[in-house]
């Protein structure tokens, strides 16, 4: 029989815990549970899209009771995770029950507005994808709708200055869909991500209305400003702005906090953009770089 030397391994791990700091959390309060937040995300989707993700059909005369049960359950479970998150933000000090309840109830109270915006996102998907046959198909099968829905919910908590939980939520969606949207981004209505795999949207991105992205698009940071000691400066604008009615095709990369993609522009696939693009532009990738054309010239020739 092989000897796994459990005692020896344990001793070496304990030595590692002592020698390697920064990735241990011992003698500290609990952090929010990734597993529990994943469950909350799944139930939030059921609340946002009633009848789509439930195993049993929902009758209209049951809807009020089922909805209230979901709200009560989510509020109670979220409160536990919010308490842990606020305790972390406060350096171990306990948040008051009133503060926790206020935050949870404010979040839940904004879900009807999130549903209104999500309806525009579903509409954008239907209108923007000729393969889409129905709203039902989009809500049930399109990864973008799941990722956008969780982002819009997480963004509410991010704006409330709640640490940890918003990022865990969007990373849960990332793991489910392959779409990585930071909860701090600002995204307008009628937003659609076609196919979606590999899309990255950074924390300080500002995206307008009626924007369409394809798979592989990155809206990222160009560089990281550092202080006198060489540490990355946090909290500054690092990611681009995308104005209304822009389409960005697959695998395009747009970088930089000062970069603005002007309204009604089209960015071609594989373009690599480090500076602002005027409104009404058509950006085409060519060998050796990109070429920027004025879309209005094409319209005038029609």
Task: Tell me what the structure shows.
The chain is α/β, with parallel strands linked by helices. Helices cover 44% and strands 14% of the residues. It has two domains: 29-178, serine acetyltransferase, domain 1 (Orthogonal Bundle), CATH 1.10.3130; 198-302, Hexapeptide repeat proteins (UDP N-Acetylglucosamine Acyltransferase, domain 1, 3 Solenoid), CATH 2.160.10.10. It has helices spanning 6-19, 34-48, 60-89, 97-109, 111-128, 135-141, 143-159, 165-177, 295-300, and strands spanning 180-181, 186-187, 192-194, 200-201, 206-207, 212-214, 218-220, 241-242, 247-248, 253-255, 260-261, 266-267, 272-273, 281-286, 289-294. The strands form three sheets. A six-stranded mixed beta sheet has the order 3-6-9-12-14-15. A hairpin with a 2-residue loop joins strand 14 and strand 15 (289-294). Helix 2 (34-48) runs antiparallel to helix 3 and helix 3 packs across helix 4 (97-109). The chain is globular, with a radius of gyration of 23 Å.
């Amino acid at each position: 029989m092989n000897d796994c030397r459990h005692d020896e391994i344990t001793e070496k791990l304990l030595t590692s815990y002592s020698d390697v700091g920064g990735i241990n959390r011992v003698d500290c309060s609990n952090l929010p549970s990734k597993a529990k937040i994943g469950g909350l995300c799944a139930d939030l989707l059921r609340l946002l899209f009633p009848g789509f993700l439930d195993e049993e059909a929902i009758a209209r005369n049951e809807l009020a009771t089922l909805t209230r049960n979901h709200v009560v359950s989510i509020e109670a479970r979220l409160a536990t995770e919010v308490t842990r998150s606020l305790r972390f933000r406060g350096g171990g000090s306990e948040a008051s029950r009133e503060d926790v309840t206020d935050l949870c109830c404010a979040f839940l109270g904004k879900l009807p507005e999130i549903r209104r915006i999500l309806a525009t996102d579903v509409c954008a998907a239907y209108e923007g994808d000729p393969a889409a046959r129905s709203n039902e198909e989009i809500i049930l099968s399109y990864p973008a709708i799941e990722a956008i829905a969780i982002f819009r919910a997480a963004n509410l908590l991010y704006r409330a200055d709640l640490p940890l939980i918003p990022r865990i939520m969007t990373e849960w969606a990332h793991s489910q869909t392959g779409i990585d949207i930071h909860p701090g981004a600002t995204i307008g209505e009628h937003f659609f991500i076609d196919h979606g795999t590999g899309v990255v949207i950074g924390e300080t991105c500002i995206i307008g209305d009626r924007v369409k992205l394809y798979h592989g698009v990155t809206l990222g940071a160009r560089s990281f400003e550092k202080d006198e000691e060489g540490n990355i400066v946090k909290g500054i604008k690092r990611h681009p702005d995308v104005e209304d009615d822009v389409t960005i095709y697959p695998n395009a990369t747009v970088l930089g906090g000062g970069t603005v993609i002007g309204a009604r522009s089209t960015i071609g696939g594989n373009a690599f953009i480090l500076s602002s693009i005027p409104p009404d532009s058509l950006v085409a990738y060519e060998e050796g770089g990109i070429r920027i054309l004025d879309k209005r010239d094409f319209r005038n020739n029609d």
